[in-house]
């Protein structure tokens, strides 16, 4: 049984003037028929994070407390129509406030609201102004939701770009290191023990066959052709050295110099 059972009268659960510093959501939930909850004139500084689970609430009076914030998921009170926040210490409302689809009446007088929020709220001096406050506040908070989501998406995109840049730099470093190993000086050295006349002849035959150099007939003509081949090889090696130099430059780029998005 709920410890608040004796505070119920019909559809209203009146917990006002009880010197409460906290609220038991569990005990309120045990009285599902209470769709009107009065917590005014207590000493509440905040509400439990699971307070928005009380989705049966239609009218909620939190006036004359010391609330500095509302739960982030306050917008989950999908049946809330009437909300009294008079005389608290609220500066802002949670982003989810824009998700209160049935809110028709709102009073936020006596709160140190941020200027833009206070302007949207208006004076709340009478019934009509409190109804207008609810409407305007929902519009304002929905706009804030859009702006926040855009910013979140932009931040997510920037993080993806940074991650992609880091991954690209990592791959370029790995490729550079691999190329450096592949084209290091030792890789071009010969082992004298493996050089024999037969090996040289075999290499010569393979070399000539691949290039169809048998047409040159004489060693002199082959030598002349080789000179041209060596010239091309020298150009290739020079380009390769230029590439290695570029790679070394890449390896010197600090991580914090990865291109940033504006």
TrEMBL record:
Keywords from the named record: Coiled coil, Leucine-rich repeat, Repeat
Signal peptide start and end residues: none
Protein's recorded name: Leucine-rich repeat-containing protein 59
Keyword Repressor tagged: no
Tagged with keyword Nucleotide-binding: no
Any coiled-coil regions, as ranges: 141-171
PANTHER family, sorted: LEUCINE-RICH REPEAT-CONTAINING PROTEIN 18-LIKE, PTHR48051
Gene Ontology, cellular component aspect: cytoplasm
SMART domains from the UniProt entry: LRR_TYP
């Amino acid at each position: 049984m709920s410890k608040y059972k004796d505070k119920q009268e019909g559809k209203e659960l009146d917990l006002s003037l009880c010197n409460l510093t906290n609220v038991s959501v569990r005990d309120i939930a045990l009285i599902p028929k209470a769709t009107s909850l009065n917590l005014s004139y207590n000493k509440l500084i905040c509400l439990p994070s699971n307070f928005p689970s009380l989705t049966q609430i239609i009218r909620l009076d939190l006036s004359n407390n010391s609330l500095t914030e509302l739960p982030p998921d306050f917008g989950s009170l999908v049946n809330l129509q009437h909300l009294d926040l008079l005389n608290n210490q609220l500066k802002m409302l949670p982003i989810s406030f824009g998700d209160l689809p049935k809110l028709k009446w709102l009073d936020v007088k006596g709160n140190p609201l941020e200027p833009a929020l206070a302007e949207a709220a208006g004076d709340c001096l009478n019934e009509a102004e409190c109804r207008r406050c609810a409407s305007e506040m929902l519009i304002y908070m929905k706009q804030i939701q859009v702006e926040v989501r855009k910013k979140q998406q932009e931040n997510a995109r920037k993080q993806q770009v940074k991650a992609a840049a880091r991954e690209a730099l990592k791959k370029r470093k790995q490729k550079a290191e691999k190329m450096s190993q592949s084209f290091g000086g030792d890789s071009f050295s010969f082992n004298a023990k493996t050089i024999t006349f037969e090996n040289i002849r075999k290499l010569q035959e393979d070399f000539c066959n691949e290039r169809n150099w048998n047409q040159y007939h004489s060693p002199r003509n082959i030598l002349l052709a080789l000179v041209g081949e060596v010239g091309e090889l020298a150009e290739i090696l020079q380009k390769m050295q230029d590439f290695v130099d570029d790679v070394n430059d890449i390896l010197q780029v600090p991580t914090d110099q990865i291109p940033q998005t504006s």
